Amino acid sequence: MGEKWKKETITKWYTVDEVVKEVEKDDIFYRSSGGGLTLSGGECLVQADFAANLMHEVKTLGINTAIETTGAVPMREIKKVLPYVDHALFDLKIMAPLQARQVIGDDVRMVKASFEAFLNTPTVEVTPRIPLIPGYTTKPENIRQIAAYVNEIGVKEVHILPFHQYGSQKYKYLGRNYTMEDTPLLTQEEVDNIHDYFESQHITAIVSGLE
Fold this sequence. Notes:
The chain is built from 9 helices and 6 strands. By secondary structure, it is α/β, with parallel strands linked by helices.
């Protein structure tokens, strides 16, 4: 006899107050470790009002805040969160405007404006990150364009994030189709080549997450 499986998504709606109560449960760990609240996604700034209100509340408790973002939102949304962000983990993906629009739906001008807004806010620590997605962000011309851009605006360090499959389960939990299942991981040599290129352009490159 065959087994029957019930497909369920694991989601729940929260108010700001409800999230703050959850965060407060771990307050002792944040204070002892120097950690804090990180908003991720998807793109957390699609819900900029919620993100701003939440970070404002947890900062009143003395808890640090961080966001992971691509910055692909209008400047009005960025301005909502700027006063409440301690650390921005900012992903730079595709620099060619047409390709960025076609592949990931991003407006490169918007991304650059957001990135520079965080950089120009003294209270925000910014970590530029480059997710290495085979066949997309890893193309030599794209790597050259990212290096040229960060050099142009005076950024001296980037974090390289090699592609992994860790997020596949999240798609299943959300009932969404995961299209990267057959995408191969980068080899150590491929990662090293990209790392070395940034270093050759006088940009410190830190590799994270390679198994």
